[in-house]
Please model this.
Amino acid sequence: MIDLLVKSAPGFIGCTSGFEDCKTVIFGAPYDGTATYRPGSRFAPAAIRAESDGIETYSPYQDKDLEDIAVHDAGNLALPFGNREGALEAIGTVARGIINAGKRFLMLGGEHLITLSAARELLPACPDLCFIQFDAHADLRDEYIGETLSHATVMRRIWDAVGDGRIWQFGIRSGTREEYQFAKDHTRMETFGVEKIGEAIKEIGRRPVYITIDIDVLDPSLLPGTGTPEAGGIAFNALIKALLELKGLKIAGADIVELSPCYDPTGVSTLTACKLVREVLLLMG
Model:
């Protein structure tokens, strides 16, 4: 499993534990082969690590410090360029190795399709796994221009595997009429906001949960560095507040996807992603 990863220098700030000693593993899946608008999220894992020294290891939101928990930064996958199935298989192999070692992971994308690989590996170990998605887009299309495996179809493919009552979606403000109807019938969707996160927590209960954060859930005036920006997003503090409400849940894994650093030359988008990485790691730890 480790042979598939290329160690990054520098690693994410504060994530200095060895693999054997850690409880949580962070790794990068730099794949954006199905990006439907602007590619570039493949560069996010390296950019996040490089800019992480711009934040502190301490979180004033949680009164916790990355130096107080055991996190191993395993590096990035070296993925086969232009081979979607090969990339998904490689991501799944790494996720499976981490799961089999009794650890959890935070995966850095890359585009949102990589979540499907994580889901496929976690479901055998957690058959009642639930999903909380923060996103601008529903990602519930059955196909996109003839392709059934795409970042526009990822949550539909996950629904295929888990069925009704297992997916909660927040911040959604873009999708087809058919996607919105599908969500009405099959998922729990809150459009435009995250105010109903408490309802999701009550419904999930003690079941394990996977958290997937598409960074375009944030308003593009705050975070322009993403491949498919959508006006009308939520504020950073609203997202942090929603995440902190999840601290009582049994988090089996998580990812942060769709940052495209090249579309924000100021670097603010990448630094915002760094803070989200820190908060999710501390939430899991």
